[in-house]
Design brief:
alpha+beta; Cytochrome Bc1 Complex, Chain D, domain 2; two-stranded antiparallel ribbon; 6 strands
């Protein structure tokens, strides 16, 4: 019985909610999947900066065309850099073996990354790269230490330095704790503009994690309204049928 209760409790925990994540400060991001323009911009950033290494193999270009209000011509011209047919999935040209040779590990597919990590995690992660000469690509990340991914958005954000401070724990051990970032080199965008880019990119990742979410939520509201109306009608019918008896 205890095992059953434990299993049920684990199922209630959102995907990606781990003890390690709780120890990291995550910046909150407001995601509105009904903002079609934000999803469109996020799709553009994804294919230009992410899809060179990361696939979204559970998403079809045709689905993007319908959900984002785009024409097939617009999708082919701006979003289709892999695949030949509009019904193809968002895959990449490189093989897992090639990627493993380049990065030491094949980059993950990002179709469900927002559902696994959470949007706050992704938003904070993409804004937390810093210079680190000890890493193969010269950068590290405060949210995902020693990550193998290069800072692909550095041309937009610029590079930043991480400032750490020393803290002593209850056992008397001294260790470094992240304090803040300092700009090292400027990018093409201001800090506010870059945050907007990351917001749109995370919005797109949230969308591909569950493309039917907006439709599902809309349908759910309609079902609830129907059930409420049906309950009132059923109650009135019950009173009508039983009024002579009562």
């Amino acid at each position: 019985m205890k095992k059953l209760i434990l299993t049920l409790l684990m199922l209630l925990v959102p995907l990606g909610a781990t003890a390690a994540a709780e120890a990291i400060h995550l910046d909150h991001v407001d995601i509105d999947l009904k903002d079609q323009a934000a999803v469109q911009r996020g799709a553009k950033y994804f294919v230009n900066y992410c899809q060179g290494c990361h696939s979204a193999k559970y998403v079809r270009y045709e689905r993007l065309m319908k959900d984002l209000g785009l024409t097939e011509k617009e999708v082919r011209a701006n979003l289709m850099f892999t695949g030949e047919k509009i019904g193809d999935h968002m895959t990449i040209a490189a093989t897992p073996a090639d990627q493993e040779a380049w990065f030491g590990k094949a980059p993950p597919d990002l179709s469900l990354e927002a559902r696994y990590r959470g949007t706050d995690w992704l938003y904070t992660y993409l804004r937390s790269f810093y210079l680190d000469d000890s890493r193969p690509f010269g950068v590290n990340n405060t949210v995902f230490p020693d990550v193998a991914m290069p800072d692909v958005l550095a041309e937009l954000q610029g590079y930043q330095k991480a400032v750490f401070k020393e803290e002593t724990d209850a056992e008397g051990n001294t260790h470094k704790v992240f304090d803040h970032f300092e700009a090292a080199t400027g990018g093409k965008l201001t800090s506010e503009q870059y945050d907007k880019v990351v917001h749109d990119l995370v919005t797109f990742l949230s969308y591909i994690g569950e493309p039917v979410k907006v439709e599902r939520e809309s349908l759910g509201v309609k079902v609830i309204i129907f059930l409420l109306i049906f309950t009132v009608i059923a109650y009135l019918l019950k009173k009508e049928y039983w009024r002579d008896i009562h």
